[in-house]
Amino acid sequence: MKIYGPVPSWRLGNSLGVDLVDAPPGYSKACPFNCLYCHLGHKGTRMSEPVQVDLPTKDFDNLFAKIDETKPDYITFSGQGEPTLNLNLGQAAKRIKEMCNIPIAVLTNACFAPRKDVRAGLDMCDVVIAKIDAPTQDLFEKINQPAKGIRLADIIGGIKSINTKVCIQTLVFSCANTTNADDDTIGALMDVYRDINKSRPIEVLLGTVTRPSDDENLRPVDSKKLSGIAERISEECGIKARYFSEKEQKKVNRNISQDKLAAEMTDLLLRRPCTREEIISRFDGSDPAVVLDKLIGRGVLGLKVLDKKDYYVVL
Length: 315
Ligand code: SF4
Fold this sequence. Notes:
TIM Barrel; 10-stranded mixed beta sheet; single chain; alpha/beta; 2 domains; 14 strands; binds iron/sulfur cluster
């Protein structure tokens, strides 16, 4: 179990990341998907079945120390590994709940939501943020590039059976000839939202590409378009829809050594490319600019560009 952040999240505020599944050495992620826009890159391993990965007590001790120090708004299961690949997800959520009352979110692609044992783990969290980017199997395969045999219809069925709060997250974007931002696709996605909402109430979270990946053809949609789509969903489906907008970074005050800062910065950027301002806001009071420049000088960190903005990544 790896702890990183808190990261600045437009959905969850200061969100302390908990990564329950390691990417194998030489790989950038462990995920049954390979989304076109994935900010972890496309060198992933396709673990296709959840397994029980041990969660040592010392990892929880470290987590509680960091919660105490950083006082996050949310604790979020996310990172280099799809959280539902670890069948101990529910046990992790239970232990966290026994120790503090900070809400727990899980960011998931929901491909294992059809499994009852996986849903039992998801149900232990306060909110499940489940990814649906496409209304049809064909577009799902183009955008999310799932491992063989994963069916969108099964994912939708699984999400309908989750028994805790569910937000459906859709990332609206284009990449060369592939897009889900056109009116017809949005209309068909709205049918999917309506269908799920009939079984259980949902909220829709509309994001766009805000982190660089390794495909230069990726294009975000602008905030006017996102707000227009959100309005359409609210008006035509009667479902609350929120959309990504730039927010001022809420600073996290830290007082840690430069060595610890370098290790934490690397752990964060391995899982989430960040702008300079975002990084500095995470380590307020610990001279992060000096450590950042040292890591760049040593070739540990480098830059990727999206929409004329520089993001730091681990090389
Ligand atoms: S589900 Fe998430 S981690 Fe997996 S490929 Fe898609 S964006 Fe990357």
